[in-house]
Amino acid sequence: MPSSLPPSELSVNALSERLATRLVDNAARLRIAISHTPDGTVIADAGVDAMGGVEAGVLIARLCMGGLGRVAVRMSLEANPLWPSMIEVHTSAPVLACLGSQYAGWSLSATKEQTGGKKFFSLGSGPARALAAKETLFDELGYRDRHDRGALVLEVDRLPPPFIIDKILRDCALAPDKLTLVVTPTHSVAGTVQVVARVVEVALHKTHVLGVDLGEIIEGSGSAPLPPPAPDAIQAMGRTNDAILYGGRVHLTVKSDAVARRLAAELPSSNARDYGRPFADIFTSFNYDFYQIDPALFAPAEVWISSLESGATYHGGKIDMALLDAQWSGTLPAAAVGGAAQP
Prior knowledge:
six-stranded mixed β-sheet; single chain; 14 helices; Methenyltetrahydromethanopterin Cyclohydrolase, Chain A, domain 2; 20% strand; globular; 2 domains; alpha+beta; Methenyltetrahydromethanopterin Cyclohydrolase, Chain A, domain 1; 343 residues
């Protein structure tokens, strides 16, 4: 069977260039703020000082996937919906879209001396990662992009300092006016959307951690509930992670039956030692150290894995809406239950 690993002739930066242009051209409608460095680098603020919004978050999520994914918001119309608003994702190039572009794997940091003020740290995601190819993951994928324009998404609550911008330009070998940086704090609306839209990417990353041959993965679809943003950064991070760990559903198509069976059993987040508590509580209990958390936790709650070899689909895991409800839902006054809330 032909390989599903990323073909070298595909450019995630070329494919997503129109999305970056659309983000800038529609900034006012999307409630984002566009600024430029003296050398012409575009900085799109989607939640630091600007309001941003769900539509901006969807467009940023598509940009993060290198133009190789569909992302949409769906309103649940079932009698007993999992949650009113759901993020849905699909890609026919899951390895390249999710690991070669969307994965937040590029660590960008600067000391207070380098910034002339506060320390800076952010993880970079999106297509420009494949221009710099600073992560060993790109060696495993056998992929590096070549394009004269690039876009990078920074999940951080302030705009990047010149030191970081210069580093990105050098590592990506881009002219300053050919780079677009999108800033999306997790506690913003757009930031919440683009993180929850990583539901398939989380499944691909867990598949990689399990040591499964990435060439097995053919298609990927997923959904997760879209929580309301939280003003506190830790709670916001907790909500977006919980949406995937306890409410995320993913359907992967793989080549072999053995891999399908294994992933159905081992992929769900319920395999993790730390499963069962809100992510913010887990993170706090480990003194805010990600590396102390069981890596098996970073996975969707429920999976279906279809095998092209056998035609069978295997199911594993389950959602835990009770945990999400307890974290996200407010309580109406008793007099308002069944009717409009009273002032």
